[in-house]
Design goal:
2 strands; 4% strand; globular; two-stranded antiparallel ribbon; 6 helices; 55% helix; mainly alpha
């Protein structure tokens, strides 16, 4: 079973009210998500299952066609999941956090175990210097993606639009 279909990533009944409240608060931070809901189905469920699936796809399914752009897009999803965690912590949603944190930690550990520090500055993301965004400073142990990064060079040497 791939991670997208794993039922452990679906919120249990006892935290669904908290999930709804946290999603509402996160949506308030992103007005374009509210204006175009058909384009932005951005729920906690979407990001948790998405992070789990993307890590599974990167390191277990190992799609040889994945590019460095797809890797960076995948990793950027983790930052929105972090917003959900921050709001849940600020709102003291203890039951939600008790369910969510171990799942995120498990996925994050799988990510860490299959990546290495980006000591060359290949990943192009303006948030990479923020301590909370540790995942933007790691490169995958994926030969095709590493080779693409080597070919295009460090982010500081290229135009990022």
């Amino acid at each position: 079973m791939n991670a997208w279909n794993d039922p452990k990533y679906l919120a249990p009944e006892n935290v669904r009210t908290d999930v709804g409240q946290v999603e509402h608060l996160v949506l308030q931070r992103h007005p374009k998500w509210v204006k175009k809901p058909h384009l932005y189905n951005k729920t906690l469920d979407h990001y948790l299952r998405g992070w789990a699936f993307d890590v599974w796809q990167l390191f277990e399914a190992v799609d040889p066609k994945l590019s460095c752009d797809e890797f960076e897009h995948t990793v950027s999803k983790r930052s929105v999941l972090d917003e959900f965690l921050q709001v849940a912590q600020n709102e003291k949603k203890v039951d939600l956090l008790d369910w969510l944190i171990p799942l995120v930690d498990e996925i994050d550990e799988r990510f860490r175990n299959n990546t290495t520090p980006d000591k060359y500055g290949y990943i192009a993301n303006p948030n990479r210097s923020k301590p909370a965004y540790w995942f933007l400073r790691r490169l995958p142990n994926h030969p095709n993606i590493l080779e693409m990064y080597r070919q295009i060079g460090p982010a500081e040497n290229r135009s990022i639009d």
